Amino acid sequence: MIGLEDVYKVVEAMVPLYVALMLGYGSVKWWKIFKPEQCDAVNRLVCYFTLPLFTFEFTAHVDPFEWNYAFIAADVVSKVIIVLVLAFWAKCSTKGSYCWSITSFSLCTLTNSLVVGVPLLKAMYGSMGVDLVIQGSVFQAIVWLTLLLFVLEMKRSGLDISSTPSSTEGDSPARTVVDPVAKFNLEGGLEMMVSSSRPSFWSLMRVVWMKLAMNPNSYACIVGIVWALIANRWHFEMPGIIDGCITILSKAGTGTAMFSMGMFMAQQEKLIACGPSLTVFGMVLRFIAGPAAMAIGSIALGLRGNVLRVAIIQAALPQSITSFIYAKEYALHADVLSTAVIFGMIVSFPVLLAYYAILELVPC
């Protein structure tokens, strides 16, 4: 049962995030310390240094041999359900959009497991809840955030290629060619209609993979899980000098991400940057659609009892901060993701308590 001490622990974990957020906001809005181009530089610092090191550090310290793989499989099933629904909507609906499908996937699936999830699930279900939420967080970093990064990089690379003028002149009349990725119809022109240069699907993939190879976010979690497998299999310990080099920046990961979000908010005309309707839309995806898909996946995989309860509650945790950093870096609905993070953390506590109370009454 959750007591006042448990509530305090959750508040204790969340308040420092809002302090960093307000400092970032004030440094731009009130004190005029940073200019817009400097704000972009801070976001890139977070995206390419502090977040990858933060991801590597917490991934490297897990024990994959002790994971609950039925729980991981249920997570995969829930994400596949969401992807299929969003793909169907984007392709078959007149209002469908692949760009909004990417953002909706982030809103439905990517959670802030470590900051809010660990203290809350510990209060609800003890060490078992903590273990499962950490497993989900690591798997999210390895698979879903990497997949999101791949799709965002493909979107940006496709736009870059489609905007490149043809270098060939005097050939046969230019023909419009639409390859499988033009089919993506990513808002604003990713339906690549190019002339005689006609880049193929594989040339686009080559560009994407080259850019991902230079992005530490794409392999920080992979390197971390490889180290975790080796360390736990043969009982290695990370040398102190390497651990120190990683820790010195990784500890700043979450704080600098919130600081960057505050800077972004300060540059918007309204406090609720995306407007009330999109805010409600984001909250519905975060706290209803995501947990519902997880419930379906968990029941389908045979999860029962407290494991099923933890699976549903951890899917209703507030929005991942990393999802905002990626949205800002790749210029895709950063206003929606920033609002989802900020308001999600505010409303998450009563929502999660409601889920906890309801699930305790329902036989699982």
From TrEMBL:
The keyword Transmembrane helix applies. Its main location: membrane. GO terms for biological process: auxin export across the plasma membrane; auxin polar transport; auxin-activated signaling pathway. GO terms for molecular function: auxin efflux transmembrane transporter activity. Keywords: Auxin signaling pathway, Membrane, Transmembrane, Transmembrane helix, Transport. It is a multi-pass membrane protein. The chain crosses the membrane at residues 15-33, 45-62, 68-90, 97-120, 132-152, 219-236, 278-301, 307-327, 339-358. It comes from the Eukaryota. It is found in: Endomembrane system; Membrane. One of its GO terms (cellular component) is endoplasmic reticulum. May act as a component of the auxin efflux carrier. Belongs to the auxin efflux carrier (TC 2.A.69.1) family. This is Auxin efflux carrier component. It comes from Eucalyptus grandis (Flooded gum).
